[in-house]
């Protein structure tokens, strides 16, 4: 297996706007554009009243994080978590300074009180957190056309349940994939190696770690470069981390969210083994640190926005293998894009016999919210209604045996995601 040279990958990763910014040559260090990272650090220090920020690319002792959350949630949580008054607020949302060590406990409190996971956003800088007080920009409307039937027929036939089961089994074998634990870091390295195999013999495919300035777990990005319009990007993926009360507790996270990462893997495998080459670029991402405030996807979506990356659509895969409700797939309607959700429903009708419905999280429940917040059209096809999701998540009992060692339900999401990729990246 091989992981493509980080410098080369970073150039592809951040290279889209370099041409538009004549005279500026990105300066990379461990996958981070140093100039931009330093700029962000300076802004961070200024806005945080002179705090020294973590240096990019190498996790330092954690400096405070800035959490934005619904004001109405605060009263139900342990008051000891909130050491200081909010630093800013609007009618519904407040921003708090937090010790990163308390994030696991905050996530646990949110889950116990509201079944929200995590139910708040955590940011490295106050500046980024303050953006949550503003209304997100609306993405431009687009025409969705479904016309890849002949091409998709052969590709869809290759999607396999066994391959999804195999990746769920490997990921859930880690004691946990918590964002700050050793096994959380190891699971990311393992996935980088696994995905690195897809780049062999394919110069248009590269795999890179997205290093986060404030924590050790890396997000994993596989880029399939578009043959005709590489500057247009489709993002697909789900979070890699898992949690069960924080820290180093056992958290196999078979459904939440080894299932979503495994579905993402299956889409890559199917497309690669079909010899498929997209016209637009597709970035498959396993996000770090979702469970502690959408931190991985928050970093990446903000970096894309800052770089002016033209994201055509984002598909979030989070919990796909527990059939808790009568229909097969439920599209979450809040913090997502209605037009793209309708397009996904049509894809289900066109390419499968599955039945779909709609449901609501009631808050920014997963990584799609980070993309929505940055003005990109994002969707979450979910395993059940939000009220009937897998009752074992965030516990040591979120294991594959709860679904009989099978991935029949997740298979439906893999088929939908393959159709989404091919119809959008044409
Ligand atoms: Zn999840």
Q: What is the multimeric organization of the chains shown?
A: single chain
Shape: globular
Rg computed from alpha carbons, rounded to a whole number of angstroms: 20 Å
Stretches where pLDDT is under 50 for at least 5 consecutive residues are 1-57
Helix content: 25-40%
Strand order of the largest sheet: 7-8-10-9-11-14
> Count the strands?
15
Structural class: alpha/beta
CATH-assigned homologous superfamily of the domain at 149-424 = Zn peptidases
Here the CATH topology of the domain at 149-424 equals Aminopeptidase
Total of DSSP H or I helical runs spanning 4+ residues = 13
CATH architecture of the domain at 149-424, by name, is 3-Layer(aba) Sandwich
Ligands: zinc ion
Mean pLDDT over all positions: 87
- The proportion of strand residues reads 15-25%
Distance from N terminus to C terminus (CA atoms, Å) equals 29 Å
Order of SSEs, N→C? HEEHEHEEHEHHHHEEEHEHEEHEHEEH
Q: So what's the CATH class of the domain at 149-424?
A: Alpha Beta
| Main β-sheet description | 6 strands, mixed
